[in-house]
Amino acid sequence: MTAEIPEICLRAYGVFFSRFGTETPFKQSVLDWIVGQSMKKKIFSILLTAGWLEKRSYDRYICKKPESIMQEMGDFKVPAIMKESQKPYAFTGASAVEIWSDYCYVQRSREKSPYFIKIAKKDISYWKQFFSKQGIYYYFEKGCTIGEYVIIIPVKKPVFVEKEGIKVEPKQVTIKFAEKNEMFAYPYKYMKKKDDDH
């Protein structure tokens, strides 16, 4: 998984890429005359964790191709990381419609990819830390940005069922939500038919 990096790390990557490209291995000592030892270790740690560098041996690294980095940064990460959560949540609204319609309705693109998630009010600090650690932008109730982000809706207790390892509001709640919005006419019919067939 490739993630965004701080400006100092972006500058370091620029130095590495301009000097070594993506084929020539290099050592951490490249930064010896530029930054201190602790900052050097931090820069390399961030670049490795964020997926901008790859380790080739004990002390040698190579730059990942910039086009791969940009491509991977636009990949959808939220559904996979939500499976790692230790607290209850429920995909809701348009996100629940996606899941229950078996993705015949998809609200997202690489340019704008919101997820609507209900969480327990008492767990707000956990979720702030959870999304920050994963490099996912989040907002409370409303907000937007370029790419993938989460709209957090704090409730007393999220009500959910599991579908393919993801916690989502129950199907009947989602069907009622879709029924009230003309934008969801097609997924509503799909979910209703599938529900009636069972």
Give a verbal description of the structure.
The chain has 198 residues and is α/β, with parallel strands linked by helices. Helices cover 41% and strands 20% of the residues. The mean pLDDT is 90. The protein is elongated. The chain has helices at residues 7-20, 37-49, 66-73, 78-82, 93-100, 124-134, 171-179, 185-197, and strands spanning 53-57, 60-63, 89-91, 112-120, 137-140, 147-155, 161-163, 166-168. The protein has 8 helices and 8 strands, in the order ααββααβαβαββββαα. The strands form 3 sheets. Strands 3-4-6-5 form a 4-stranded mixed β-sheet.
Label this structure with key terms.
about 40% helix; elongated; four-stranded mixed β-sheet; about 200 residues; alpha/beta
Task: Describe this structure in a few short sentences.
The protein is of the alpha/beta class.
What form results from the Cα inertia axes? Answer: elongated
Low-pLDDT parts are: none
Main beta sheet strand tally, sense and closure: 4 strands, mixed
What string, H for helix and E for strand, traces the elements in order?
A: HHEEHHEHEHEEEEHH
* Average residue pLDDT: 90
Span of the ends, CA to CA: 38 Å
What is the CA-atom radius of gyration, in angstroms?
21 Å
Structural class: alpha/beta
Q: Estimate the strand proportion.
A: 15-25%
